[in-house]
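A favour, since you know our C-alpha cells better than I do. What I am after is a single protein written out in full by you. Could you add the entry underneath, on a fresh line?


***
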Amino acid sequence: MSKHTTGIHHITAFASDPQANVDFYAGILGLRLVKKTINFDAPEVYHLYFGNEAGSPGTIITFFPSPGSPKGEIGGGQVGITTYIVPQGSLGFWENRLMDFGITVKKLNRFQEAYLQFADNEGLGLEIVERSEGPDSRWAFNGIPADKAIKGFGGAVLYSVNAESTMDTLQNVLGLTKVAEDGEYARFQATGELGNIIDVPLVSMEWGVGGAGTVHHIAWRANDFDDHAEWQKEVMRKGFRPTQIIDRQYFNAIYFREYGGILFEIATDPPGFAKDEPAESLGEKLQLPEWYEKHRAKIEQNLIPIQVREVDGQLS
C-alpha cells in the first residue's frame, strides 16, 4: 500500500540579518520564536525556528541567517511562495497591518481563494489566505490578537524545472491527491489540516539561485520514527536516493532531491521543541546539541545577539 504524508512539516530558508529576521517573523507576522539554536554543520550561523505557540508540525518556518550572505534569486528548484493561513474574516486586518509596515501587498485570486501576496525583508515570497481548517493559534504578540493570528502553513507554491516530474512525485511518492487545475496551476492536497495544499505552475521554470531570500528545502511529515524508517524505504523503492536518517534533535530527517530540482525532506513529528527546554520558555535561550556544549562560550561570542521585540513602523 502506498504511503501518504499529512502535509508540510517545516520550510527552511536562507537569510542574512538575524535580528531583522526575528523582527519580521516574530514582530510583524507574530509568530513565536520556538527555538534558537545553530546550524549543526556551521556553528557560527544561527538556526532559528518560528511557528505557533508550540512549534507544531505544519507551522514551522526556519532560517539560517548568515551576515554577508549573497542574495539569492527565486526560481525553479525551490519553494517559490510559502503560504500562511489565517482565520476567516481576518484578511483585512492583515492587509492593513502589512501596509502599516510599508510592505507592498498584491491581491490576487487562485482556485477561487483570495490571497495577499508579499515578500519578507529579504525578498522571500510569502502569501496569506483565509481558511477555516486547522486549529487557531493561541499566540498573541505585538498587536496581533490570537483570533487574527497566523495558524500555520496553508501550503506552498512549488517552482519546478520539470513540472511533470514534481507533480508525479507529489502524487506517487508523497501520496497527495490532485484536486484541481486551472490552466496555470495544478493543485494537490494532503490529508492534514495544516500545510496541506500545494500548487504547482504547469509551466516549468528556469533554475533559481540559492541565497538570502530563497528557500533551501521543504520538509514533509512522518508520523513517528517507525513511519519515518518506512518512508526512507518507500523513497528508495520509487527510484530516489534518500540520505541516511539524521538526528536533528527535534525531529529525525531524510533528504532527497526530486526531479524538478526541489530538495525534499521527510521529518518526524516527534520529539518536538520542548525536548530541551520548557514549553513556556521556548526560544529564549540558545540551545546547543550536547556535542557543542563544551564550545558554548566561543559559539555565543561568534553569534550576533538577537532578541524578540515589539516593532512598529517601517523596518530598515
